[in-house]
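To the wet lab folks,

You asked to see what we're planning to order before we commit. Fair enough. Below is the target structure as tokens, and below that is the sequence we designed to fit it. If anything looks off to you, flag it before the synthesis order goes out.
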């Protein structure tokens, strides 16, 4: 007891409570340190510069070895372009005078631009670029200058080809190649992703305005998320000298940073408001929020960081960059939420309610216990807790049914027409080229390095390889060889039978790798001959991803289990947390396969079934979703445990925990579904798959998992929810005794439990 008979509030322990208490006592210092940190991080990143992932680092297997050979030799492979020429009626042959005149005009036009070199007519000796039926021909050439900037210089060439096409109405004259495709896609979709990123913040702010009904309260989560993202951008520049970064990592970091930054601030701010509505003074409200929501933020943040760290085990530079960038932004947002946020709330006080929207009525709690949650969820919980066994059976059965299609998941790098559809003329050109020259648009490339590339044995092996590549059925030709004598490197281009059909093309690739190469180039000592190309790159990447699944899965699940075990000191909570999260991820996989692989309901999301899921997405979704799911789970279970420690019965604690968190979980989920849903509206199939997968998983997690399955399972388990074997009780105690916090207390007498005030 304190002076005047006041009850002295017990001290609370834990990093979050101590950090929040310090920030409240030193408000301006906490805000100043945060601003200084953000400025210094940005400055350090600018001063250090940034190293991005090289193309060769993004590859794996033989594809990576081939890229290293080319890089070590200092060879800049020029960007190749082709002009396809064929009669529009499908009958005009390449020997027709009009056809020959068009070819001559194309050669003259592209040479006249000054941007190309090594122009090769289909009529030149040994060119072999007239189709087998004699009705399609290719004019081939290379772009001058730096291959990395070829797309910026290809416009005059495209204009020249278009001019020739206008002069020959009976012929289809179309350009395709690395530079022209890059330019076309950048013009059509380059701003797609950036628009989605920029629209994410206004969407989140709009939802927060509805959730809080006040401008200042809505701006706080967005401000925290944006400053965390800014600081992480600077830190990425510094860290990139150890682990190169990428534009994809930037985008993923922005998405994750916005999601967790807003979530964490929502958790904290909602709890602080709730405590003030109970009648606590502002300092006590902040102290309770720090010890409860603050702790939940730290547990969740560390778990999300562990999940993101799983991407470091893939062995793929792009994934490692995404994992490290995401890990950093989560850590920064977590620290900001338990330090600068309480300082800002202390400074603002009641002014956090400033800028109230007149058309949104301020909600008034019906009591002091914080149970001003959704009426909908109260009704749902009434049913769930009355029949928990039936609720578990129905929810698990529904989730397993949704997840079932995932058993037949097929992953691959999407082809051009799968990724973009047929909305662009260049995609139709790609299909025509593949039809006339199977595999010609994406040939396999054998990169041969020898001690002496001109040695007779090497020359003979190259000739033998060309012959056997066609004889084996892997290619119909033409197989072209270009030799760089000074660097002792040769390139062999092999159009694969199967063309854009990934499965058939991979069988042709296997013939080259497993039979043709060992029987020819493999017999010459000192010769390396890795096979690369689009098909090979897709297969090697897919193999690397598949090989990474087990170590990533084990790392994420084991460490998440240990963190939950240490944080809640309950074996049951740790096991159920993992099981529920895996169910959520499985259901998201099932939706992905149903919509994008089989095309079921694809029209509802403006997509179409393409027969496959892009190869990097399942592992990416597992890591991201497993981490983000812990936000809700930790927050809800923390409130349930807090209520249980304050003396409530098991069912009452579950009801209290779920209902009091319903508003914040719903708000956070709506924001994430809306932001991820934006990416589901983009034109590229891979972004659609990512957006729909993430949005569906978050929706399932916030409704079926947290609103039905979690309370039903905990109701069935009763006191076993908090079971911890005696041999585990020597573990470090990272839990926090929420029972020491001010708030409702349950006094047990002979009759039912009743709530009394502290």
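Sequence we intend to order:
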């Amino acid at each position: 007891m304190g002076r005047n008979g006041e009850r002295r509030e017990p001290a609370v322990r834990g990093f979050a409570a101590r950090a929040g208490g310090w920030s409240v006592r030193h408000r301006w210092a906490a805000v100043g340190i945060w601003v200084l940190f953000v400025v210094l991080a940005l400055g350090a990143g600018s001063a250090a510069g940034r190293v991005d992932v090289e193309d060769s680092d993004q590859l794996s297997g033989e594809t990576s070895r081939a890229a290293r050979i080319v890089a070590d030799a200092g060879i800049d492979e020029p960007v190749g372009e082709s002009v396809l020429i064929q009669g529009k009626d499908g009958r005009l042959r390449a020997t027709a005078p009009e056809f020959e005149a068009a070819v001559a005009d194309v050669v003259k036009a592209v040479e006249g631009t000054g941007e190309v070199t090594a122009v090769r007519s289909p009529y030149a000796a040994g060119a072999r670029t007239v189709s087998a039926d004699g009705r399609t021909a290719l004019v081939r050439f290379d772009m001058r200058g730096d291959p990395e900037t070829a797309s910026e210089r290809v416009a005059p060439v495209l204009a020249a080809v278009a001019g020739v096409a206008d002069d020959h109405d009976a012929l289809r004259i179309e350009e395709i190649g690395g530079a022209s495709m890059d330019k076309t896609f950048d013009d059509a979709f380059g701003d797609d992703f950036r628009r989605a990123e920029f629209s994410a913040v206004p969407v989140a702010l709009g939802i927060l305005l509805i959730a809080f009904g006040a401008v200042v309260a809505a701006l706080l989560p967005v401000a925290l998320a944006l400053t965390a993202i800014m600081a992480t951008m600077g830190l990425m520049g510094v860290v990139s000298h150890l682990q190169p970064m990428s534009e994809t990592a930037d985008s993923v970091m922005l998405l994750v940073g916005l999601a967790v930054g807003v979530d964490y601030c929502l958790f904290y701010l909602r709890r602080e408001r709730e405590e003030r509505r109970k009648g606590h003074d502002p300092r006590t409200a902040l102290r309770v929020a720090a010890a409860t929501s603050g702790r939940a933020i730290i547990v969740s943040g560390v778990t999300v960081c562990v999940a993101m760290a799983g991407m470091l085990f893939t062995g793929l530079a792009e994934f490692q960059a995404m994992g490290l960038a995401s890990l950093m932004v989560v850590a920064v947002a977590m620290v900001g939420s338990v330090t600068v946020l309480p300082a800002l709330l202390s400074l603002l006080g009641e002014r956090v309610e400033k800028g109230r929207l007149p058309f949104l009525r301020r909600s008034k709690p019906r009591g002091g216990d914080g149970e001003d949650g959704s009426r909908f969820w109260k009704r749902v919980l009434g049913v769930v807790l009355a029949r928990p066994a039936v609720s578990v059976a129905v929810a698990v059965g529904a989730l397993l049914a949704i997840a079932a299609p995932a058993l037949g998941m097929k992953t691959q790098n999407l082809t051009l027409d799968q990724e973009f559809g047929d909305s662009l003329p260049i995609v139709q050109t790609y299909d025509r080229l593949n039809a006339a020259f199977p595999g010609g648009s994406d040939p396999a490339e054998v990169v041969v390095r020898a001690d002496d590339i001109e040695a007779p044995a090497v020359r003979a092996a190259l000739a033998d390889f060309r012959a056997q590549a066609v004889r084996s059925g892997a290619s119909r030709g033409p197989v072209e060889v270009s030799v760089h004598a000074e660097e002792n490197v040769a390139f062999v281009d092999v159009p694969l039978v199967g063309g854009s059909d990934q499965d058939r093309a991979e069988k042709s690739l296997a013939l080259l790798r497993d039979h043709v190469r060992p029987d020819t180039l493999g017999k010459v000592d000192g010769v390396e001959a890795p096979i690369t190309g689009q098909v090979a790159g897709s297969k090697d990447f897919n193999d690397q991803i598949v090989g990474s699944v087990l170590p990533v899965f084990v790392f994420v699940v084991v460490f998440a289990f240990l963190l939950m075990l240490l944080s809640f000191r309950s074996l049951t909570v740790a096991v159920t947390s993992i099981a529920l999260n895996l169910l959520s991820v499985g259901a998201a996989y099932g939706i992905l396969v149903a919509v994008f692989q089989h095309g079921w309901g694809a029209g509802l999301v403006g997509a179409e079934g393409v027969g496959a899921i892009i190869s990097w997405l399942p592992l990416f979704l597992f890591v991201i979703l497993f981490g983000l799911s812990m936000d809700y789970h930790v927050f809800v279970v923390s409130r349930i445990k807090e209520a249980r420690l304050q003396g409530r019965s098991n069912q009452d604690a579950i009801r209290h925990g779920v209902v009091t968190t319903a508003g914040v979980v719903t708000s956070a989920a709506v924001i994430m579904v809306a932001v991820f849903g934006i990416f589901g509206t983009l034109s590229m199939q891979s972004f659609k798959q990512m957006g729909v997968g993430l949005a569906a998983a978050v929706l399932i997690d916030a409704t079926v998992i947290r609103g039905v399955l979690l309370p039903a399972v905990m109701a069935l388990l009763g006191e076993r929810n908090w079971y911890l074997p005696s041999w585990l009780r020597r573990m470090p105690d990272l839990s926090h005794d929420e029972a020491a916090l001010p708030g409702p207390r349950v006094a047990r007498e002979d009759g039912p439990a009743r709530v009394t005030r502290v």
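Structural context that might help your review: The radius of gyration is 31 Å. The chain is about 60% helix and 10% strand.

Thanks,
Computational group
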